[in-house]
Design brief:
The chain has helices spanning 2-12, 25-32, 34-42, 79-92, 111-125, 141-154, 165-174, 179-190, 207-222, 235-241, 243-252, 262-272; strands spanning 60-63, 73-76, 133-137, 160-164, 194-198, 226-231, 257-260. With 273 residues, the chain is an alpha/beta fold. The protein has a five-stranded parallel sheet, sandwiched between helices. Strands 1-2 form a two-stranded antiparallel sheet. The protein contains twelve helices and seven strands. Strand 5 (194-198), helix 9 (207-222) and strand 6 (226-231) form a beta-alpha-beta unit. Helices cover 50% and strands 12% of the residues. Helix 9 (207-222) packs parallel to helix 11 (243-252). Bound molecules: zinc ion (ZN). Residues 52, 54-55, 77, 79 line the site of zinc ion.
Length: 273
């Protein structure tokens, strides 16, 4: 069993490539032992979410070369792509909405909602440009629905964090005197590949709200990180509240900046019933 531990250590260090120079002599010896490799591959692991016949739920397999023992290596199993995607869903905070807010369920009843839907698709196709997506207007299912559906698509390949502005800004502001925990909690939001802020600036914008919003928006802006924002406020209203925050959002979401008017949003909700 000692060999397994050694290899686990090697895997932790990311030594899953062929001919990895960083493998120690000991690790190389383990990989040369065909019987051990076969044994190892047949051991059942305990990874969750899926049942994989290839790696037996260990997440990786040892590959042995018939011709040359030096070519034996450890390989990440293909099931890990799906496991990691599921894990990202769990971490994102969006999991409870997975069934409800899909693209298929988004209502395209008028020109504006059709256009919004098409723009969302266009946005996903050009995601490598790292532009931002902003949709403003009265709070309701239409905006959140579309943004959430986009997030599900992005979660297949990216780490994403869902921030409900009112809820999470309140708990962050409460931590403001506890610097260590404040930084830790804030880090979860600002370092992620994609951040989706729902109901941005809902519930008032006092000094603490503005400080927090600026910290988040400015970090995402400076580091070119994808950010999706829905808000009951329009971009003009945000600019009026705080120019530094508004101008950054405006600049980054220049090509994907939309507004749902009040009565349209109302229609969406009434029809949903
Ligand atoms: Zn597998």
């Amino acid at each position: 069993m000692q060999e397994i531990n050694l290899l686990r250590e090697a895997l932790k260090k990311g030594m899953v490539q062929k001919y990895n120079e960083d493998l120690t002599q000991e690790e190389r010896l383990i990989l040369k032992n065909k019987k051990y490799v076969q044994n190892y591959n047949s051991i059942e692991g305990n990874l969750k979410y899926l049942d994989c016949k290839i790696c037996k739920n260990k997440g990786h397999i040892m590959v042995i070369s018939e011709e040359d023992a030096k070519r034996n290596y450890i390989k990440k199993c293909s099931c890990m792509i799906e496991r990691e995607s599921i894990e990202r869903f769990k971490q994102s905070g969006l999991e409870p909405l997975r069934q409800k807010y899909t693209f298929a369920k988004f209502k395209k009843e008028n020109e504006k909602s059709k256009n919004l839907y098409n723009k969302a698709q266009e946005y996903l196709k050009s995601i490598d440009k790292k532009e931002w997506f902003f949709v403003g207007g009265q709070v309701g299912a239409g905006k959140s629905h579309l943004c959430t559906a986009m997030c599900f698509s992005l979660l297949k390949t990216k780490r994403l964090k869902f921030m409900e502005w009112v809820k999470e800004s309140t708990s962050l502001k409460a931590l403001v005197l506890d610097e260590e925990n404040y930084t830790k909690e804030l880090a979860k939001l600002i370092y992620t590949d994609v951040l989706y802020i729902d109901d941005f600036f809902k519930g008032g914008t006092n000094k603490a709200d503005l400080r927090l919003a600026f910290e988040i928006i400015n970090y995402r802006y400076n580091n070119d990180l994808i950010t999706i924002i829905s808000s009951e406020k329009s971009i003009d209203e945000i600019l009026e509240i705080d120019e530094a925050i508004g101008s950054r959002i405006y600049e980054k979401s220049y090509n994907f900046n939309f507004e749902i008017e009040k009565d349209e949003e109302l229609n969406y909700r009434l029809k949903e019933r």
